[in-house]
Amino acid sequence: TMYHQTDETEFNFLKSQPNWEWFKNAMINEVPVFYPEPYFAYRPTNSNTVHHAYHIAQLLKYTNININKLSTVFEFGGGYGNMCRLFFNLGFKGNYMIFDLPIFNELQKYYLLSLEMPVVSDSIEGMDKNNNIILMSDIKNILDDFCNKGLFIATWSISEVPIYFRKKIFKIIGNPDYFSLAYQNNFEEVDNVKYFKSFCAEKKNYLWHDFEIEHLKGNRYLIGEKIK
Questions:
Q1: Which DSSP symbol is given to 136?
Q2: How many folded domains does the chain comprise?
Q3: What is the residue range of 160's domain?
């Protein structure tokens, strides 16, 4: 999601969590280039960051994921890079790849470099073993290091591309340890509820949670953890 104006539902959920202080500190704005309007209930942050933190909180609720020990994140459609920023603020120490259109990769590069974050663009040259951000727009260049492990996250993105392209992406990533998807029930002519139900049925080696987002009618979460 590029930008979302959230209400109090998501913020109140975050406040109710035992790890609220962890989220609270990670959500503080540190952005020298974008100046989003402060969130009314917690002015050091903004509405979009609350929304992204809520996504992560749902992932934590339904899986045993440990962000501090996570090796990779593959984000399909990264907005301007705020989800990536939040993961690193929460203690992520692995490699993070954003797959997006070239124009959005440029926006993400500008935003993340302004925060002096470790962006290595679409090349592995100069990449350390860990703690890198790779921006990718060519499906042929997706790195094997981000396949069959880590987290695959896509919020209102993979559900907005044609079926043939979804198949390509899911074939490449294989079986990551975790899936975190948010999607609308229908997009253009595609019944996403039916599509993702079939998707889950094919991946039987996961524990799936597919449920409506109560305060965002017509939208759902799909969260999965590989059964080991």
A1: E
A2: 1
A3: 63-226
